[in-house]
Amino acid sequence: MKPSGINCRILAAAAGALLFLLPPAWKAFGEERPGAPASTPESVSAGKAVFFEYCSGCHGRRADGRGPQSINLVPKPQNLRNAQFMKYLTEERMFASIAGGVRGTAMPAFELNLPAEKRWQAIHYLRSLTRGDALQISNAPDHQAVPAESRNPVAYSAEALASGKRLFLNYCASCHGARADGRGVIAPNLVPMPRNLVAIASWGEKPFIDYMPDSRLYDSITNGVPGTSMSPWIKVMNDSERWSLLLFLRDQAREERERSEKNGGSPAQ
Ligand code: HEC
Ligand code: HEC
Predict the structure, then answer these.
(1) Of the ligands numbered here, which is closest to the C-alpha atom of 211?
(2) pLDDT higher than 80, residue 16
(3) Whole-angstrom distance between the N-terminal and C-terminal Cα of the chain?
(4) Spatial contact of 50 and 125, defined as CB atoms under 8 Å apart
(5) What distances in angstroms separate CA 78 from CA 30, 70, 94, 125, 126, one per listed residue?
(6) Which residues form ligand 2's pocket by a CB distance below 6 Å?
(7) Domain-by-domain residue ranges, the chain?
(8) What are the pLDDT digits (tens) for 209-259?
(9) pLDDT(11) > 50
């Protein structure tokens, strides 16, 4: 028996434990305070891969907070496509939340699993999702009169349609459903529920919005529908963004019509 050997091992273990207990000191030596690298198309697409691998289980592949693991979490992961939230979320805070996690929530610390470079790539990707949204127009009026003869000034184009679709999925689909059929995830909790805007009735009648002039629908999107959960969007999006939403809705109704014609006139499922 060599007591000195045991002592040595105890000492070594104690020293190891001490090092383990002092990560801040170790980090101060090991990791430089990272500066923010510039966002590039390459860093955005690298960030997408990082996001899909490490984050989408909770935040969802669309970053809308509805990943498969989100179901059991309280609080829920943030909807990172909500430009109003993202606008006030600084890159420093995002970096800190991703590195250190968010205490009291399921948001884990990625400091030891993801190098700083990859954390920045994820931030660049997240930023890119809402960059185009001209949101929170604080000096916009509270209400906009919409003359009955107003027509959608946004001409049909692939870009305008894509922009309307993106906005719809980000801001409207939770209530109206991704296809505007009224089957959004929170629709069952609403009174009244959003109607199916685009369906052909079983007796073959045209979709609701086919009967509605542009001015009526744009008025509802701009100023809201009093007495329902349909809020005004006038302070959230600019005019052409709101019109592009209507372009998307009309296109959805056209798709439903074509689907029903293919089914020999019966409504799409
Ligand atoms: C285990 C589930 C989970 C995983 C995995 C996860 N998150 Fe989160 N995340 C959350 C939750 C829950 C919140 C909400 C915290 C709150 O309510 O403030 C959150 C919040 C955030 C926020 C907002 C932080 C803030 O300061 O308000 C960002 C940004 C974020 N996550 C990015 C990421 C990124 C990037 C990844 C992948 C590298 C990721 N998350 C992985 C659950 C997760
Ligand atoms: C919180 C839930 C909710 C959100 C978010 C929401 N809506 Fe609505 N919406 C409703 C409800 C409820 C109604 C009223 C019932 C109906 O007409 O479907 C409605 C009505 C409408 C109508 C029909 C209005 C009319 O003139 O009869 C349109 C068009 C519409 N919403 C578009 C949108 C668009 C575009 C967005 C996104 C910018 C949006 N909604 C976001 C709940 C919502």
Answers:
(1) 2
(2) no
(3) 80
(4) yes
(5) 31, 10, 12, 15, 12
(6) 168, 171-172, 174-176, 190, 192, 194-195, 197, 216-217, 220-221, 225, 228-230, 233, 245
(7) 36-130, 158-262
(8) 998 999 999 999 999 998 999 999 988 888 999 999 999 999 999 998 888
(9) yes
What's the confidence (pLDDT) of residue 137?
A: 56
What's the gap in Å between 129 CA and the centre of ligand 1?
Answer: 16
Q: What topology does CATH give the domain 36-130?
A: Cytochrome Bc1 Complex; Chain D, domain 2 (1.10.760)
Given this model, what pLDDT does residue 237 score?
A: 85
List all residues 6 or more positions away from 215 whose beta carbon is below 8 Å from its beta carbon: 146, 147, 148, 149, 150, 151
Nearest to 152 by CA among 32, 60, 27, 249: 249
Domain 158-262 annotated CATH 1.10.760.10: yes
Phi and psi dihedrals of 84, rounded to 5? Answer: -70, -40
25: part of which helix (H) or strand (E)?
Answer: helix 23-30
Mutational pocket test of ligand 1: of 44, 56, 59, the residue with most ligand atoms within 8 Å of the beta carbon: 59
Q: Examine domains 36-130 and 158-262 and report if their fold is the same.
A: yes
Burial class of 265 by CB neighbour count within 10 A (0 to 12, 13 to 18, 19+):
exposed
pLDDT of residue 200: 82
Q: What is residue 267's predicted lDDT score, i.e. its pLDDT?
A: 54
Q: Specify whether the backbone of 100 is left (phi greater than 0), alpha (psi in -120 to 50) or beta.
A: alpha
